[in-house]
Each structure stands twice: as structure tokens, then as C-alpha cells.
Amino acid sequence: MFFAAAAAIIVAMLLALVRAYAGPTVYDRILAVNHIGTQTVLLIAAMGFITGRPDFLDISLLYALINFIATIAVLRYVKRGRVKADTES
Amino acid sequence: MSDFLVLRVIAKLLIPFILLFGFYVQMHGDYGPGGGFQAGVIIAAAFILYAIVFDVNTARRMAPMAVLVSLACLGVLLYAGVGVANLLYGGRFLEYGAFAHDPAHGNHIGILIIEIGVGIAVAAVMMIIFFSFARRR
Amino acid sequence: MILDILSWIAIAIGVFFVLVGGIGLIRMPDLFSRMHPAGILDSTGAGFLLLGFLLQADDWLVAVKLVLIFVFLLFTSPVATHALAHAALLDGLKPWTKERKKDSES
Amino acid sequence: MDKRAQEGLRVIELYLNIILLVFVAATGIAAVWLRNLLASAMVLGIYSLLMAALWVVLDAVDVAFTEAAVGAGVTTVLMLLAIALTGRHEKRRRARPWLPLATSLGTAGLLIYATLGMPIFGDANAPAQLHVAPYYLLQGEAETGVPNIVTSVLAAYRGFDTLGEVTVIFTAGMGVLVLLTGATRRRRNTAAPTEEDSA
Predict the structure, then answer these.
(1) Which one of A32, C16, D106, D195 is most buried, by most CB atoms within 10 A?
(2) pLDDT score, position D192
């Protein structure tokens, strides 16, 4: 059952990766990064149960805390009014 | 970020937990994954989150550059000082077994102290790098 | 045995939500509509998956860590999505509507 | 866990490795491909998330922990700060980079050729597994009183190396401090005094 969870998480990660590469605006990419962060938390937790070593959960916990910082930092340092410029590149 | 009220409330709530987790990683490094380096980075990340969400200047006043530089030096010196202390106790440089009668016990003490030194140094250096980048804006 | 079945059901629901969230992230037309699958379904999927893992945990420390992960995700994920939407709206990104479909195709 | 379940686990880990490595490679190419540096920084954030997942699958928990702490949080912030200081778009080069391309492809080919001579992945008889690793695994906990082998190797057996590492980190921090604040001070002396720290 954990395998099914891991497989589904991998598929969701792939879809979010496509969105991160294609994403027309910066905000789409931030959304995709945040989504992949959550999926990674779940994947690592699932891997901990698959391999029978639940001390992996420390890493999940760390990600749940740290992933937030990257998202907020991007929001902080994106300069305003540049969305149009990003859609072109 | 003055117009992000929800963000500021949640950040205020999260920062203590990030710091606490950093200390957990620091002290739990000998039983689980983690150690001084990771703990230092996590503690620095808590300060960086504060600086991002609230104000770089307030964060800088909370952790002034002079204090950070002294802390970085203190961390490295703590590590090297353990080695010198081993010499004084009659061992070789960084041979922690000399700390106690039982070498395993002495090793454990030595590892704990140097991990704390690594944690202090890494946290201070990460904050130094962040603040000196943020200063130039 | 009951616990096993319950956890399987929870994991199955979680898998469903995670997959639908991923598909929605691709299929939705603009940022604000993409935020719904990425934010809401992500949180529910994570919640159900973690509930399923929680029912399989045999150590109380593991259970506490799982609950903590869920609590932190519950705090950070919606807040990040909210801040993202707020920043995008301040930046002048217009939400997608059927009328404006022609000129703001993304 | 019986033998068949263990075999199945190994196969699943192999597939997870392959999938995650493909993701990592795609992410690296995308980070180079994208002209928008902000997008590149975010793609590199994804890269580090994927690398951490890969380390977990490879059972290198401590490395995964470092990757999680450094890659996801601090590196992204520092990269964004650097982008905010310089510029958001990569400069377009006129010349075609044939020589660098040939050099890197040649090096990659040589490295791949060298991996053919390496022992099989996870081979118990590889030279790396025979020299001091068994000693650490067997004696580490008894000698240091620390159950986590990685910590005991890093802090006790290889304590001198770790001291060097900490010194390197310290030197890096001091270098950044001297370079960045020194430049600000010089500019402030020549130009009119402006409002300090308007970040």
C-alpha cells in the first residue's frame, strides 16, 4: 500500500515538474515548487515506512518547516510589476 | 511584507518551532540523523525567516554583526580548544578518550562539545553571509 | 486488522487526492485556478496519507512526528498559497474568466 | 521480512532511483536552459528537493538532512539575494561555446568510461567496503558511545578533517563579510552619505 502511495506521489511530482518548467509566470513556478516540497515530505515519509526505518520522519519534519522559507523568500524578492517581462522569456 | 498579516502571524508561530527543532537536531545528532552542521543551518534559517517576513534591520539589531563574528570565532575555537584540552589531559590532539576514565564516555563528551562548536560556527557564518548580502540592497 | 483496513482506505483516498491535485496543476487555465488543486487537494491528500501512515505506526514517537508533520503542513501550505495569491494579485495578475479568455491565454 | 519481500523492495528502490535520477537530470538541464534567473533559482530549489529524496532512497540519511537544511532553505534565499543584487536575466552570448561544450562532453565521456572499471553498485567486496568501513561499523558504537555511525566517523575518527571543514566555512563567511561590507564602505566614502540599510 505504501508503494501505491509512493507511486502516486512520484506521478504528482512529475506533473508539478512539468508545471514548474512550463509555468508562464514566476508565481506558477513558486506554486509548483511549493507543491513539490509537500510531495517530497510525503515521499520521504512513505520511504521511511517502506524501508522500515521511521527515523526518516525527521527529514520530513525538517522539510515541512524549511520549505516554507524558500517560498516566502521568493515572494519577498520578486520585484513588483515584472510579470509581463517573465511571460516573454 | 507589511501587508501580509496572515504570513506574519504564522511566521511568528513557526519560528520558535524551527529553533526548537534546530536544538533537537543539535542534541540528537548522536542518536539520529543530523548534527552540528545541520542544526546550525536550521537555526540560521529561523533568523532568516524572521528577517524576510518582518524586517532585515530588526533582525540585524537582534543579532548584530559584531556578535555574529565573535560567535563564529567562538565556534571554531571551541572545536580547536577541545583538541588542545585533550593535549592537556594527556591525550593526543582531538583524542577525546582522554576526557574520562572510560574512553567511550570521553569520546561521547568530546563529540557533543565539538558538535556544539560546529553548530555555533555554522549558524553564525550563515547569518553573516545572509546579512552581508541583504545589507547591499 | 481493522486498523489496517482503515489505513488502506485513508491511503487510497490520499492517493486519489494527490493524483487529482497533480492533474489539476497541469490542466487548470491560470494561476488562481491552479492554486485550488495545488493548495486544497494537496493539503487534503497529505492529510489523508499521513493519517494512513499514522494508523500503521507502531511507535508513539513515530506517531507524534507524523502528527507534527501534519500540523506544520497545515500551517505552512495554506499560508504559502495565500501569500502567493496575495502577491500575484498585488502584482496585477488578473484572474481568468470566460470573457477574458481571448486576450489572456496562458 | 522474508526473502521475496526483500527482493521486491530492492527492485522498487532501483526503479525509484532511476525515476528520481531522470527527474534530477531534467531539472539540471532546465536550470541551464531557462534564461530567467529567478526561474532558474526556483528550479534549483526543486533540484535540491529531488536530491534529498534520492539520498533518502539511497539510505544516506545524514546527507539527506544536510541537503534538506541547506538546499531548500538557505541556498535558495542566498541565490535570490544575489539575483536581487545583480540582475534577473542572463546575458545572451554572441560566441558559440564549442570549446567548453567539447571539453565538458569529453570529460563526461572519460568519467563514464572510468565508471565501467568501478565495482558494481552496492557490491560488498568493493575496496571501499573492505578497508576501514567494517571497523567503523563494528567498533564505532563501542568505542565512541554514539549509535549514529556517521556522527562518530565525522566527529571522532575523522575529527581533524571536520575541524578543517569548520575552518573552511569560517573563512568563507569572513571572506564574504570583508568583500561585501568593504565595498559598501568604500562607496559610501566617495559618494554622498545615503540612508544605510534600506533593505
Answers:
(1) A32
(2) 45
Interface of D with B in 12-31 (CB under 8 A): none
D142 lies within 8 A of chain B by CB: yes
Chains C and A touch (3+ CB pairs under 8 A): yes
- Spans of all domains in chain A: 2-88
Q: Which of B108-117, D83-92, D161-170 has the least mean pLDDT?
A: D83-92
Average pLDDT over residues D31-42: 83
Number of domains in chain D: 1
Q: Point out the residue among A15, A57, A83 whose CB comes nearest to the CB of C66.
A: A57
Cα separation, C7 vs B123, whole angstroms: 40
CA distance A13 to chain D (A): 9
The model carries a pTM of 0.84
Rounded to two decimals, the ipTM of the complex is: 0.83
Q: How confident is the model at residue B76 (pLDDT cuts 50, 70, 90)?
A: very high
Domain span at D85? 7-89
Q: What is the largest CA-CA distance in chain A?
A: 49
D1 within some domain: no
Nearest Cβ partner for B14 among C75, C83, C86 = C75
In angstroms, the separation between the Cα of residue B52 and the nearest Cα of chain A is 6
- D41 pLDDT more than 70: yes
Residue C86 CA to residue D58 CA, distance in Å, equals 39
The predicted pLDDT at position D179 comes to 85
Q: Which of residues 148-167 of D touch B (CB under 8 A)?
A: 148, 150-152, 154-156, 159-160, 162-163, 166-167
Confidence of residue B40 (pLDDT cuts 50, 70, 90): very high
Q: Which of B27, B58, B30, B59 is nearest to B40 (CA)?
A: B27
Any domain includes D122: no
Q: Give the DSSP letter string of D112-175.
A: HHHHTTSPPTT-TTSHHHHSSHHHHHHHHHHHHS-S-HHHHIIIIITHHHHHHHHHHHHHHHHH
Q: Flag whether pLDDT at D195 surpasses 50.
A: no
